[in-house]
Amino acid sequence: MNRFLVLAAVAIALAALPGCSEPDGRMADMAQQVTHEQSQQNQRIAEGSRAVAEGSKPLIEADAKARGQLIGLQRDLQQDQSAVARERDKLEGERQAIAGQRVQESKAGAFFVGLAVILVCLAPWSWPACGTPPPGRKRVRFWSKSWRPIWLKIPR
What we know:
The chain is mainly alpha-helical. It has two helices and two strands, in the order H-H-E-E. The chain has helices at residues 2-16, 26-130; strands at 138-143, 149-152. Strands 1-2 form a two-stranded antiparallel ribbon. The longest helix is centred in the middle third of the chain and has 105 residues, at 26-130. The N and C termini lie far apart (179 Å).
């Protein structure tokens, strides 16, 4: 019985295959219409791509121009920075030279102040060597053992 059912199913399938005796043009028309619509879509996509490419050309050119200007500005900035650095180095050199002069001046000032102090301290010892009495004193005619004159204060 199984064989009979299988054979019957195959026979029905074979009978259904040639189904239409005349060829129907609806499928061919539909395939042709779908192909036509597909080609129109492809043309519209191509036109859109061309429009995008043409529209992006000025943007690309403007971007290249802006990049060129940016590079020029960066070059100018670097030149300005190097000029500022040179001026800063020059000022630093001048500052160090002035600081060195100040150190020399302060050393010379300290030397002369010290020399003045020494001379002031030695002044009382130098009066007898000069041979003139200090103010308020008179010369006495005798000499000390060190062969220097002795100055005595004599009341008037």
